[in-house]
Amino acid sequence: MKRAPFVIAGTAAGVAGVLSFHPQPGTSSASPTTGAIGAKPSTTSAPATSTNRAASPATAATRTATGADAPNQYGDVQVRVSVSGTKITNVTAVALPGGDGKSVEINAAAGPQLAQQALAAQSAQIDGVSGASYTSDSYKTSLQSALDKVGFKA
Question: How far is CA 126 from the centre of its chain?
Fold first, then answer.
């Protein structure tokens, strides 16, 4: 009975610490305006758009599209891609699984790696990230969908 006040005080301090914890956003290629990890993607995707840059005739049009939602057992994956001419210029994860702390941790690291792989490969034919197999497979599916929408041929 003499330990009860200490146990209660320790428990209260632990609960207060957990409730006051605010994780820092991971370093991801996704900006806050494009969606957070774990965010449920919207039911409509952005249409492929073209923007002509009038600077010179040699500058190609930039097309952007959001791929189809590619769910897996841990959550939804959705990717946005920008293509200029015959080159993929930007790949951003709109949604990655984030239903639990482990998924958030895995995908905070996997998201940027998958985007780098897509930019390096200039296609959806990427290796994926070890430890994030489900996310990698869904990422490839959504990326290919986005590339199809903008009419990109590897």
Answer: 15
Confidence of residue 17 (pLDDT cuts 50, 70, 90): low
Radius of gyration of the chain (CA): 20
| Cα–Cα distance measured from residue 115 to residue 140, given in angstroms and rounded to the nearest whole number | 10
Residue 60, SS3? coil
Phi–psi pair at 10, nearest 5 degrees: -65, -40
E strands in the chain: 49-51, 62-66, 70-72, 75-84, 87-95
Q: Output the average pLDDT for the chain.
A: 77
Q: What is the pLDDT of residues 114-134, one digit of tens each?
A: 999 999 999 999 999 999 999
